[in-house]
Design brief:
By secondary structure, the protein is mainly alpha-helical. It folds into 2 domains: 3-107, Arc Repressor Mutant, subunit A, CATH 1.10.10.10; 118-190. Helices cover 54% and strands 6% of the residues. It has helices spanning 3-16, 26-32, 39-52, 72-80, 103-107, 118-134, 140-158, 164-173, 181-190; strands at residues 24-25, 56-60, 66-70. The chain has a 3-stranded antiparallel β-sheet. Strand 2 (56-60) and strand 3 form a beta hairpin. Helix 1 (3-16) packs across helix 3 (39-52), helix 6 packs antiparallel against helix 9 (181-190) and helix 8 (164-173) runs antiparallel to helix 9 (181-190). The two termini are 14 Å apart.
C-alpha cells in the first residue's frame, strides 16, 4: 500500500470517529484497519506527517508512539480532498486495489472493500472534456485527438472494463498541457500507471 493510501486510511478512520473525543495511537489504527506497516517507527512518522500537514492534533508518548485526533482543518480536508486524489473528497473515495500483495488482507477487513468505481472516472473525464474545450492555448487538432481518446475511455468504462491503454495514450498526448495535468494524473492513478 502506498504511503498516500495509508495517510488517507488513517485520516478517514479519524474522520469517522471525529466526535467521540478520543485520541488514537497511529499504530493501533493501522492494526485495526489491517494495514501492513514497518513497525511503530513508520506509524509514528505517518502521524507526524498528518500533524505537520495540520490535519491532526498529536501527542508523542514516551515509547516513540504518537497519539492523534483529527482537528477542524483535517475535517475540512477530508470533506474536500485526499492525499491520493487531490480535490476529490476522502470520505467518498473508494480505493481500487488490484494485484496488490495486501489485497487479501484488505478484502478480509471490515469496512473496507475493493471495488471498481467507474463513476468517479466518468466525472473526471467529463471535467477534462470541459476544461480542454475552453483552453485556447491548445490547437484544435490536439483537442480533437484528446476528445477522441476520452470518448474511448468512457466507452470502455461503460463496458465495465479498465481503459488502461487509452489512459496511457492520453498521458502521452497531453504532456505539457497544464490546464488538465492534475485530472489526467487522476486517470493515470486509476489505471495504476502513475
Amino acid at each position: 500500500m502506498k504511503q498516500t493510501e495509508k495517510l488517507d486510511a488513517i485520516l478517514k478512520f479519524l474522520y469517522q470517529n471525529r466526535f467521540n473525543g478520543k485520541h488514537y495511537l497511529v499504530d493501533c489504527i493501522m492494526d485495526e484497519l489491517n494495514i501492513f506497516y514497518n513497525g511503530k517507527e513508520e506509524a509514528a512518522e505517518l502521524g507526524k506527517r498528518l500533524a505537520s500537514d495540520g490535519f491532526v492534533d498529536s501527542n508523542p508518548i514516551s515509547s516513540g508512539r504518537i497519539l492523534v485526533t483529527i482537528n477542524t482543518h483535517g475535517i475540512d480536508y477530508c470533506e474536500g480532498s485526499s492525499y491520493s486524489f487531490k480535490n476529490i473528497s476522502l470520505i467518498s473515495n473508494n480505493y481500487n486495489i488490484n494485484n496488490s500483495p495486501n489485497s487479501n488482507i484488505i478484502s478480509q477487513s471490515e469496512n473496507v472493500s475493493i471495488t471498481q468505481d467507474f463513476g468517479n472516472i466518468n466525472k473526471t473525464v467529463d471535467k477534462i472534456i470541459d476544461i480542454i474545450q475552453k483552453d485556447k492555448t491548445v490547437e484544435v487538432k490536439k483537442i480533437n485527438e484528446i476528445l477522441e481518446c476520452l470518448a474511448e475511455i468512457q466507452e470502455t468504462i461503460n463496458n465495465n472494463k479498465k481503459p488502461k491503454f487509452a489512459i496511457k495514450y492520453l498521458l502521452n498526448i497531453t504532456k505539457g498541457i497544464s490546464s488538465i495535468a492534475s485530472w489526467v494524473k487522476i486517470l493515470g492513478q486509476f489505471a495504476g500507471i502513475v
